[in-house]
Design goal:
about 0% strand; mainly alpha; 5 helices; about 110 residues
Length: about 110
């Protein structure tokens, strides 16, 4: 899993940087980031939201996914991308979701009912 500093705002900044790069091709880039197992993501969630401890289960079977994503072409096109550690990204994401719920911008009951 990947997480980027200030996602999604920074991702859009990279899209704009790519558009302004002068590249005349219809390029496709990998967005790299911090590589982590699902178990590591669960631990990060449980650290950021202790009330979730023991509520998330994981099937330990590994699937055929490349553990590292090469973002060198992206960085060659737009410059260095700053990645943040998994635990910090998860903490920020949970804080953003909680703020959205508190502000009434995220309907958890509606999401769960779907």
């Amino acid at each position: 899993m990947q997480h980027h500093r200030d996602t999604p705002a920074a991702v859009w900044a990279h899209v704009i940087r790519a558009a302004r790069s002068g590249n005349q091709r219809a390029s496709v880039y990998n967005l790299g980031g911090t590589s982590a197992s699902v178990a590591e993501v669960v631990r990060a969630i449980e650290t950021a939201a202790p009330e979730a401890k023991g509520m998330i289960t994981v099937n330990p079977v590994q699937i055929g996914v490349t553990p590292e994503i090469d973002s060198s072409e992206l960085e060659r096109a737009i410059g260095k991308v700053q990645w943040i550690p998994l635990h910090e990204g998860v903490r920020q994401t949970i804080a953003t979701l909680r703020a959205g719920i508190q502000a009434g911008k995220l309907d958890v009951d509606g999401i769960l009912a779907a």
